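PROTEIN DESIGN WORKSHEET
SECTION A - STRUCTURE
LENGTH: 107
C-ALPHA CELLS:
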C-alpha cells in the first residue's frame, strides 16, 4: 500500500469539503466576516497541500540511500514530516494563499 498517495487523497477530500462549504455561503456583507475567515482558511489549506506535494516531489527526485535503513517507516516519517512542514509554511505564507484568497474573493 502506498501511503503517500493515500495521504494526498485525504487532503484533497478535505480541501474539496472546505471549498464546498465556502461556496455554499453567500458573499460577505459589511458585518459578515465568517465568510472571509473561511475563505482565508481554504486558501491557507490549499497552500499547505501545495507545499506538501512540492516537498514530496522534491524528495522523490533525490537518489535513495540505504545508510539509515530506509523502509516503510522512513517513508511514513518523511511524508508526515513534509505534511507538517507544509502546514507550518502555510501559516507563515509563501504568497500562494494570498493569491488564491484574492482570486476567490473576486468570484
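SECTION B - SEQUENCE
RESIDUE ASSIGNMENT:
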Amino acid at each position: 500500500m502506498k501511503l503517500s498517495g493515500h495521504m494526498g487523497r485525504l487532503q484533497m477530500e478535505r480541501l474539496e469539503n472546505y471549498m464546498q462549504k465556502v461556496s455554499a455561503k453567500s458573499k460577505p456583507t459589511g458585518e459578515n466576516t465568517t465568510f472571509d475567515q473561511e475563505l482565508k482558511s481554504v486558501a491557507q489549506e490549499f497552500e499547505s497541500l501545495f507545499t506538501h506535494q512540492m516537498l514530496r516531489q522534491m524528495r522523490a527526485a533525490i537518489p535513495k540511500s540505504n545508510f539509515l535503513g530506509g523502509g516503510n517507516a522512513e517513508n511514513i516519517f518523511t511524508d508526515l514530516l513534509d505534511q507538517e512542514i507544509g502546514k507550518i509554511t502555510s501559516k507563515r505564507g509563501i504568497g500562494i494563499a494570498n493569491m488564491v484568497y484574492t482570486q476567490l474573493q473576486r468570484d
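SECTION C - NOTES
The mean pLDDT is 78.
Residues 3-22+31-106 form one domain.
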